[in-house]
């Protein structure tokens, strides 16, 4: 087979393979639309390269326009997908101006003032601008993880490739006056090889990012209670022990609040499990709002909840519990009959010394039991210090 044809088919083949791979990923993760946009980008890129070699019945000039439209839309899709995946607001105006400006310049130097060299410069500078725009958007998040850092570097390299490589080759081997011998030129060979390499590297990085997204989602499902949206017991204990270690190192006070919904079994029996689920979700939302981003909140049992509050002593934690109790008992849960009052009881304990999570929870649970036993809808405190082991001093003679 002709070597030139093999090189010509290199980029379309790579692009179509990447398109298929992103489509497969998207079929399993429909909630991540950027994967479908990436598939569209690589499919358009394949079409753009094929139209560089095969002329449509509409003629060579319009085929070149169609090819560069494919490249431009592919570049827009790739840029927006990368930016969207990393939680940044997509600058559609900037992307549109760069892509549209490149296409407008191409048409000018194709139909008004025909000049192949300027067409090359116009399109490469437009794609270089898109690459640097992506790099600028990734700059604030480049320290969030390895994929962000690698994509930031690849975006910079892609921008330099479109600007520097193009200028160097055009100055060294240009100007180009026609397509005769163009596809055997140093410009086209370096363009094909650099595009193939950068496409593969960017795609591999995006595959890694998608895999990390799946792993984070699985971890979230493992540690999150689906009904309340809070941490489950496993997640709460893991996050809680980590928080206690950090507070012990920094010598910060920590307090624990346990809460239990009053008469929850009776409520389930009378109003049904759907109503019980609404009560749990409603209480969890109020607890999450009160804890904010500082506290660690979790649903550790059927109707039992826990909140670890850093930088809080016993008095501050009591105020927190009283505020949640008052707001919740005064409110109404949607779906329950008018006049149905739902309350909660609270037990509060402040950490003493380097007390571990388990004894701290035991003391808060004892306080919660007292609140339940003494009429419910109340807050009780644990004034007990954690259990210590008494070691007598050795007897000294003389």
Automatic annotation (TrEMBL):
Q: What is its EC number?
A: 2.7.7.65
Show the catalytic activity: 2 GTP = 3',3'-c-di-GMP + 2 diphosphate
Question: Residue limits of the GGDEF domain?
Answer: 252-384
Task: Kindly state which keywords UniProt assigns to this record, in alphabetical order.
Answer: Membrane, Nucleotidyltransferase, Transferase, Transmembrane, Transmembrane helix
SUPFAM superfamilies reported for this sequence: Nucleotide cyclase
Tell me where the transmembrane regions lie.
6-26, 33-53, 65-83, 90-111, 117-138, 150-172, 192-212
What Gene Ontology molecular-function terms does this entry list?
diguanylate cyclase activity
Q: Which InterPro entries match?
A: Diguanylate_Cyclase, GGDEF_dom, Nucleotide_cyclase, Rev_trsase/Diguanyl_cyclase
Q: What is this protein called?
A: diguanylate cyclase
Its source organism is Mesorhizobium calcicola
